[in-house]
Amino acid sequence: MNNPVITIKNVSKSFGKNQVLENISLEIHSGEIFGFLGPSGAGKTTLVKELVGLDTPTKGENFVLGGKMPSLGLMERVGYMSQADALYGELSAKENLEFFAALYGLKGPNRKKRMEMVMEMVQLSDDLNKLVSNYSGGMKRRLSLAAALLHEPELLILDEPTVGIDPVLRKSIWDGFYDLKKKGTTIIVTTHVMDEAEKCDRLGMVRNGKLIAVGSPEELKENTNSGTIEDAFLVYGGA
User: Fold this and answer.
1) What is residue 2's predicted lDDT score, i.e. its pLDDT?
2) Are the beta carbons of 76 and 67 closer than 8 angstroms?
3) What residue ranges define each of the domains in the chain, with the CATH number in brackets?
4) pTM, 2 dp
5) Within 13 A of 49's CA, how many CA atoms are on the CB side?
6) Within a 10 A sphere around the Cβ of 174, how many other Cβ atoms?
7) What gap in Å lies between CA 117 and CA 92, rounded to an integer?
8) Per residue in 100-121, is it b (16+ CB within 10 Å) or e — as a string?
9) Are strands 186-191 and 155-159 parallel, antiparallel or unpaired?
């Protein structure tokens, strides 16, 4: 796990006078599940948008899979799930997946196989032909995750992937993440849920646009003499 898949070099981001990210540097390694932990408005979404090539830093550079972002060629090797579900409500789940599969260049039997596999992972196989407009919020999140997984990306970037999903299904989805990790997929998740943060190999704690701590959940708790990740976050954040 010493091979960096992502290198963030002195990245800052401002929108007018509002500084959203401040001088962030970080390496994320191949085959790890890395979590960005922080409250809403901390800058997590802005940072992952830059990593997937949908935004650019005001200062600094982001390197993903050996190349500088943004890059169309690199974006094809990344699976991304945003906080807002990028789905077409007037289409069925199957039609949505077929659209994304076409974007990724999936064809023939492999397309059908991948669609079946990802829908099984998010437990929506029985709802494949249902209109997305009839899906609940949680079902839409799960379908968005399925779409991000379709093309078996080397790097999976997920912004609050399990918001609105019940605890039993959330565990099932995380089991799927561990399976992907075993196959060599690097996974980045943003979260403000403490028990979900515990499931990551390493965490980057983000507060007010700054990276305040990086380490495994165990290291972060040990270094702050804390019993929980929440307590560790409060110590690092100076609360």
Assistant:
1) 62
2) no
3) 1-77+153-239 (3.40.50.300), 83-152 (no CATH)
4) 0.90
5) 14
6) 17
7) 17
8) bbeebebeeeebeebbeebbeb
9) parallel
